[in-house]
Amino acid sequence: MVLTDEPYNLKYMPTRRNILSALRWIVKDAQPGDCLFFHSIHPVDWERAGEIVSEDLYDVKPLPTGCCLNVLFDSCYSGSVLDLPYIYQPSDHLKQHAANSRALTKYPQAHVVLFASCSDFQGSGGIIIRGGEFLGAMSSAFISSLTTNPTQTYLQVLASVQVILRRTQRQTPQLSSSYPIDSSQQCLF
């Protein structure tokens, strides 16, 4: 499912309701061994409907054992949006471990990986791309990184995205996960 801010189909506008509905759709039939990807931006109706917060995301159906969910949040203050316990730096080491994470109770056996566009205390920038379209800076950097080198590890993607963002932005991308990431594990996208 793709949500877009093109005005031709309101059913697929990235509203708060539609973004949460899309997340429910992607996990509803998840099975062990599945590798899922969810990319979210700021809801177009956030001023009226509100922001998407951690509690909204934890109302989504739990993932089954052995399922992998990769998430890209390209929105302001998104660093800990999923409250994942393992937080990484591009320098290949664990920055922080929060043992009391709500994620461990919600996703006890699933592997959830979050690429967030910035820390909890930063705004997330955007850029104008071909044809005058607006794209989140993190989304653009993420696509550029994986297009240039599609066989990177999670930590390599984080480092590459950070280098790309530093050229034009003042945001620091974040990587976190529900379980420790093997530094040699290839990014599963």
Can you lay out the helices and strands and say which pair or pack?
Blueprint: H1 16-28, E1 35-41, H2 46-49, H3 54-58, E2 68-74, E3 86-88, E4 94-97, H4 103-106, E5 111-116, E6 126-129, E7 133-136, H5 137-148, H6 154-166, E8 174-177
Parallel strand pairs: 1-2, 2-5
Antiparallel strand pairs: 3-4, 3-8, 5-8, 6-7
Helix pairs in contact: 5-6
GO biological process, one term: proteolysis
InterPro entries: Metacaspase (IPR050452), Pept_C14_caspase (IPR011600)
GO molecular function: cysteine-type endopeptidase activity
Describe the structure.
By secondary structure, this protein is of the alpha/beta class. It has one domain (10-177): 3-Layer(aba) Sandwich (Rossmann fold). Helix content is 27%, strand content 21%. It has helices at residues 16-28, 46-49, 54-58, 103-106, 137-148, 154-166, and strands spanning 35-41, 68-74, 86-88, 94-97, 111-116, 126-129, 133-136, 174-177. Strands 1-2-5-8-3-4 form a six-stranded mixed beta sheet, sandwiched between helices. The protein has a two-stranded antiparallel sheet with strand order 6-7. A hairpin with a 5-residue loop joins strand 3 and strand 4 (94-97). Belongs to the peptidase C14B family. GO terms for molecular function: cysteine-type endopeptidase activity. This is Peptidase C14 caspase domain-containing protein. Residues 11-178 form the Peptidase C14 caspase domain.
